[in-house]
Fold each of these.
Amino acid sequence: MMKIGVLISGGGTNLQAVIDAVHGKSGDIAVVISNKADAYGLERAQKADIPTSVILESDCADVDDFNKKMIGVLKDYGVELVVLAGFMRILTPAFIAAYPNRIVNIHPALIPSFCGEGFYGMRVHRAIFEYGAKVSGPTVHFVNEEADGGPIIAQKAVAIDDCDSPEAIAETVLREEHKLLPWVVEQICLGRVHVDGRLVTIDKA
Ligand code: GRF
């Protein structure tokens, strides 16, 4: 069973979705790493008896040291697939090189719209609301050195024309995230995802 490492920074609802749908089924979450000691996602992992590790940037000499420490923990647990689930830090080229096309991230918008530098959390949904977009939805992509720039694995567009606030958009999109991320992780664990340059294909079940 493929060993998965999940990186979080906050509440961990996406982590919970992967625990519920994948852990002990198509994959094994070997460790959850957080850069925040108070991330509620750590409690979610502990409740599922999944090992956790907190790596504080304040304990690291610099961003390279921080990433080296994360890679060390992931390798110690034999992690083969890294899932960023609300992880709010950029990874270094060394980290990305350690897991080529084996790091996935979920972004709460339809890349290449509303993504890249500065587009995270509620800033994404506020920009979408102000722009007057009629659809939005999550994107799951492989991580490369460009923020939100890696090959797209899957997306789900949903209507948001009846959302009367950025918060309503966030809620609508998060519901879809909780379906899309576990599904993509499962497809990768089952060996159904293939990458050719920027083109990602998924075998039909
Ligand atoms: C989600 O909106 C996700 O798209 C973004 O960060 C948020 C994570 O939420 N990357 P949670 O911590 O998984 O609840």
Amino acid sequence: MSKNAIVTGATSGIGEATAIALAEIGYNLIITGRRVERLRHLKKSLESEFGVQVETLCFDVRDKHQCAANLENLPNGFERIDVLVNNAGLAAGLEHIDQGDLHDWDAMIDTNVKGVLYVTRIISRKMIEAGGGHIVNIGSIAGTETYENGAVYCASKHAMHALSQGMHIDFLRHGIRVTEIRPGMVETEFSLVRFHGNKEKADSVYTGLEPLTGEDIADTIVWAINQPPHVNISEIVVMPNQQANAYYNYKK
Ligand code: NDP
Ligand code: 8X3
């Protein structure tokens, strides 16, 4: 029987690569994000390339009403959700706390923390009813480390780390597996978003080293969900070979 997955934030980067990787192994998909044209384009290409069913839900995970309106009643064929990938997220800005922008803080905390909770509450209830499932949370090395200028993003990813552990505990009795993946640098639209569209600044983050790709993280997700049902991969840290942690990297 084919399986069903939801990937939040599938319009670019890790989420898009994950949608492709899951379609490739036969998952029917619900892909979400706010950029409707990108969702439509991805749906079309996944359906034609892999012959799977793909539905798009265009909404903002920060809005609890939009989450409910889109996720409570899922499209036909998605009565059971086998895998939820909580991927939608962002960093906004890079400065000391006294210089922080309140809009940036709201965006990070509302997306990376509250958005994950809104989505998980609704989908976990469906998983409980169905007798199981697998939740994959995209955390970050910023979930266990804190670096200068990144306090609020790090706080939001520390929250993701705590939520992943809490989900595992709370869902033990329901047979729902929970995996947190904590990547280092992945070249996506992440830095472009963090620097509010400044491409030069964004590109400079990756100059001199070979960062991870969205596909690297998608491969890791596929490996974790393909483990036998009695195995739960709780946490995975994935780093570029030229980066040791948030502070040390080797640029050529
Ligand atoms: P991208 O910017 O390429 O992708 C982010 C995705 O999240 C987009 O699809 C975006 O869709 C979606 N998204 C953002 N805000 C919202 C929102 N309010 N509502 C719905 N969807 C939203 O970055 P990445 O692929 O790198 O980021 C994916 C995840 O990986 C994030 O949680 C990030 O924190 C994490 N991460 C990234 C790392 C990196 O170095 N790139 C390292 C470690 C973790 P849209 O704009 O269409 O709404
Ligand atoms: C993204 C990686 O090091 O920019 O989560 O925080 S980092």
